[in-house]
Design goal:
alpha+beta, Butyryl-CoA Dehydrogenase, subunit A, domain 2, Butyryl-CoA Dehydrogenase, subunit A, domain 3, 4-stranded mixed β-sheet
Length: 390
């Protein structure tokens, strides 16, 4: 079993810490700055080591436990939660492999346990193949290492990561083409970042583009060489499962906070037409809040269940990927629906830039851009149920 804590156990992120994080979110968003104070506090409580096993210097939490923490963090500061997610994904990937007897990423657990911060350098502009293809060149070196050349976009934690997990295509080896996964260090002269993060939402994540110009990954940091296209390798499963589940957790937190704000607004606002009664007494407002609550209640059990299945090494076979992409799409679309209902309940004040609900509206839109997008997810599910198109 996954050893999940009971509901009575104290969360890693306590209420006081979350309130401090929430209090800073508006300023980070307004100024388009990195969440430095949040980051320092999260490091101090060991949050970046949450998924690292105790033997590697971590806290030894399960994916299910960390998912519940990410829901809470996402409700306080979505951009902070989204950026930290990328480090948690890599530690989760390493944990999944380690739990299944694969030590190829044990070095990552050791380094994360010692305080290194990992960025997720996978996404590329125009690459809708995601893990199954790349526009980055991976050039083999005589010592078994590789040099990566290309541009990675949406590299969250850009000001803070010290190690970057990335990928590219080896087109020159005798067995080419191969998708090569490796890790480069921030100090490498071939690694630079662009100051290009000026977005509608999730601004504090500072997910800047990372330019790789011959960035070197030594042989002992090359973890896979895989054929392009869909691949049953355990690394692909580990990345998909952690990325989709942890991402869904952040957006579930956004929906939870939007619902709380809607309830507060319904009690606060009054209607002259109804003789000064609160909107909490208005049947139409009550219906909208109930609709949002029903939608929100439906996501959390799915999220927890899939995370527990990863922890317990449940074998869903060919249905694993449809379930993972389905969760991601449902969670992000559900959060958009809940935020939309909350806006309709809360009135014109939520349209102002400084409104928390207005910020959540901007933040939640980012969900449509993360892999797997709706088109890719539906294709995955259709293939699982109908088989591929001839």
């Amino acid at each position: 079993m996954s050893g999940v804590s009971s509901a009575s156990d104290s969360p890693l992120l306590d209420d006081a810490l979350l309130e401090r994080i929430r209090s800073r979110a508006a300023g980070y968003d307004r100024d388009n700055t990195f969440f430095t104070e949040d980051f320092d506090e999260l490091v101090a409580v060991g949050y970046l080591r949450a998924l690292v096993p105790v033997d590697f210097g971590g806290l030894g939490l399960s994916l299910e436990q960390v998912v519940l923490e990410q829901v809470r963090l996402g409700s306080a500061a979505p951009a902070t939660a989204l950026a930290v997610n990328m480090h948690l994904v890599w530690t989760g990937v390493a944990k999944v492999l380690h739990d299944r007897g694969d030590s190829s990423l044990d070095f990552l657990l050791t380094e994360a346990g010692a305080g290194e911060v990992f960025g997720f350098g996978i996404s590329e502009s125009g690459n809708d193949l995601v893990l199954f293809g790349s526009t980055t060149d991976a050039a083999p070196q005589p010592d078994g290492g590789y040099r990566f050349t290309g541009t990675k976009v949406f590299t969250s934690l850009s000001p803070a990561w010290t190690r970057l997990g990335t990928m590219g295509v080896d087109t020159t080896s005798p067995d080419a083409p191969k998708i090569v996964y490796g890790f480069v260090e921030r100090a490498d002269s071939g690694v630079t970042r662009k100051d290009d993060w000026d977005t509608l939402g999730m601004r504090a994540s500072q997910s800047q583009s990372t330019v790789l110009d011959g960035a070197y990954s030594p042989a002992n940091r090359i973890i896979r060489r895989l054929d392009p296209g869909p691949n049953p390798d355990s690394l692909v499963f580990a990345i998909f499962s952690n990325f989709e589940i942890l991402l869904a957790a952040v957006y579930t937190g956004v929906g939870q906070r939007a619902l709380e704000l809607a309830v507060a607004a319904a009690h606060r606002r009054t209607s002259l037409k109804a003789g000064g009664r609160s909107y909490a007494q208005d049947p139409d407002i009550r219906w909208r809040i109930a609709d949002a609550a029903i939608a929100q209640d439906g996501i959390r059990p799915q999220l927890v269940s899939l995370a527990r299945d990863v922890d317990d090494q449940v074998d869903h076979g060919a249905q694993w990927f449809p379930q993972l992409v389905g969760l991601k799409v449902r969670a992000t679309e559900n959060a958009r629906h809940v935020v939309d209902q909350a806006l309709r309940v809360s009135g014109g004040g939520s349209y102002f830039a400084g409104s928390e609900l207005g910020r959540l509206y901007r933040d939640v839109l980012a969900g449509i851009f993360h892999p797997s997008d709706a088109e890719s997810a539906h294709n995955t599910v259709a293939n699982a149920w109908l088989g591929p198109i001839d």
